[in-house]
Design goal:
The structure is a single chain. Helices cover about 75% and strands about 0% of the residues. It is an all-alpha fold. It has one domain.
């Protein structure tokens, strides 16, 4: 079984891999395919973290509420950047600068999460509890949106409800997007 920290780190490596392919590719079609994959990975990961990881951290950490408020602000900023990036044409001159700026903030967030939050969380959990959180994270990612949305509802709980209502539409639209080919790498097909 996979522990929660391993599941989160695996998601982070997938995002880094997509990013590296995007910024190193000269092919617009390949960039578009990995733009869709990056968007799919980050949108699902962010919402699933908010629904599964954040509540667990809040219960187990003495500074849980304050820390999570910071994390939610970071997630909100990343979602706003993703909202802009996900619909940019790969030939747009803003394409690479937008994902590069987004990845800089995301890399800091991932580093902090991996070296601080997940270490503290794992120290507080049994192996069984950690594995159950990882399983819940994976299951949750199947039901959340695969795109970023701009709700501006002012309350994370309302946004969660809006996310869950929006997810089926995202999944339907995903059927008509371009995706990386299986042999291109790292990816779990969004078409499962």
């Amino acid at each position: 079984m996979v522990r929660i920290s391993e599941a989160i780190k695996d998601d982070h490596r997938k995002l880094e891999s997509c990013y590296n392919i995007i910024v190193n590719s000269e092919d617009e079609d390949e960039r578009t395919r990995f733009q869709n994959q990056f968007t799919w990975e980050l949108a699902r990961h962010s919402v699933a973290e908010e629904l599964v990881l954040f509540p667990a951290m809040e219960k187990l950490r003495s500074d849980g509420k304050e820390k999570l408020d910071d994390d939610r602000r970071e997630h909100s900023a990343l979602k706003e950047q993703l909202y802009v990036f996900q619909d940019l044409n790969s030939s747009d001159p803003r394409f690479i600068p937008t994902i590069t700026m987004m990845m800089e903030g995301l890399a800091r967030h991932m580093q902090d999460e991996e070296t601080n939050d997940l270490v503290i969380l794992e120290e507080s959990l049994t192996s069984d509890e950690s594995e159950k959180l990882a399983e819940s994270l994976g299951r949750t990612k199947m039901f959340v949106p695969s795109r970023s949305h701009s709700y501006d509802l002012g309350n994370p709980h309302y946004e969660t409800v809006a996310d869950l209502l929006t997810a089926p539409l995202d999944h339907l639209r995903d059927l008509f997007r371009k995706w990386p080919e299986e042999e291109e790498g790292i990816l779990t097909s969004p078409m499962l």
